[in-house]
Amino acid sequence: MGALVFACATTFGISAQAAVPESKETIMIVDNNWSSQKVLARVAQQLLDKVGYQTRIVPSDSQGQFPAMGLGDLHLQMEIWEGTMAQNFDREVKAGRMIDVGSHVATTREDWWYPNYVEEICPGLPDWRALNDCAEKLSVAETAPNARYLAGPVDWIKHDPERIEALDLKVTVVNAGSAAALFGELKSAAARKEPIILFNWSPNWVGAAFPGKFVEFPEHTAECATDASWGINPDKTYDCGNPVGGYLKKGVWSGFEKTWTCGFELVKNINFTGPMVDQAAAMVDVDGMSHDAAAAAWIKNHPAEVAKWMPACAI
Ligand code: TMO
Questions:
Q1: Residue 34 Cβ < 6 Å to ligand 1
Q2: SS3 sequence, 251-302?
Q3: How many helices (H) and strands (E) does the chain have?
């Protein structure tokens, strides 16, 4: 059989390259619950569609998506954030069920954050120790005498309870139901200059609209999460902040390359800078576009990047 294939290839002078698309199987692209991810997922979708693949956007939460990609029920995730997803992603990669398709140029930070005017209420910020000094001033009736910390939806795993315990913080966590609820509260607090400490991340559109800072916790290291003896609390893990300059990766099901070979090349090439991610999110959250329209506009506005990303097999 091998000899026959070889004979045909030589006879017709064709390369070993298979026709694209190599498979009519649908590529299931993960859709999460924040705007930049939704736009990047659709940028990838629209480019894969252009190559000739069948694609579908499939909602999944930030943690359950990894076992699903490991099993091959979902196939592509365009934004894997180190701060919230490294552990579950690494587990699939180590087991050989997912492939790390490389990092975007954009680096990431996900942590407790406040708009700058909160420093007038609590001048010790951004040092984390100021949270305890100002606990009353940062409290609401529901949390008093503790400060209130507004976290994201529960599937964004941040280890806040562990950190609060390890650093002995006088803080109570309240979860927002969605990214829209999280930033809706920021908007109304900022309009009245009321204190607020909330979860935020970078790159994002928020920093341009509301100048602010991350709370500076003890510096993150890998051991902080695994070795209780590391850090200022000798008996507890998570006595540190989240990574600064964390990665933003793309990841796929382990069978992706074999099934959609040219698509794999395309996904490998896609590479967003921080400002490009900011812009993708702002098109939806500031300009009010739909995620599909934002992705189409993003592609239209970035012809040079898109041309660089399209692999030879797709042209
Ligand atoms: C995963 N996120 C960017 C919302 O922190």
A1: yes
A2: EEECCHHHHCHHHHHHHHHCCCCHHHHHHHHHHHHCCCCCHHHHHHHHHHHC
A3: 15, 10
The average pLDDT across 17-42 equals 94
Instruction: Give strand pairing partners of 58.
Output: 30
CA-based nearest residue to 241, from 131, 136, 146:
131
Name which of 268, 254, 251, 280 is nearest 80 in CA terms.
251
- Answer yes or no: pTM beyond 0.85: yes
What tens digit of pLDDT does each residue of 104-149 get? Answer: 999 999 999 999 999 999 999 999 999 999 999 999 999 999 999 9
Q: Determine the pLDDT at residue 254.
A: 98
User: What whole-number percentage of the chain has pLDDT above 90?
Assistant: 90
Angle between helices 35-51 and 291-301 (to 10 degrees): 60
**Distance, CA 10 to ligand 1 centroid (Å)?**
51
**Cα gap 134→118, rounded to integer Å:** 11
**If DSSP codes are grouped into helix, strand and coil, which group holds residue 42?**
helix
Rounded CA-CA distance 126/131 in Å is 9
Measured by CA distance, the residue closest to atom 3 of ligand 1 is: 201
Residue 110 CA: which ligand 1 atom is closest? 5
Domains and their CATH numbers in the chain = 23-107+247-314 (3.40.190.10), 108-243 (3.40.190.100)
* Ligand 1 site, residue 156, Cβ cutoff 6 A: yes
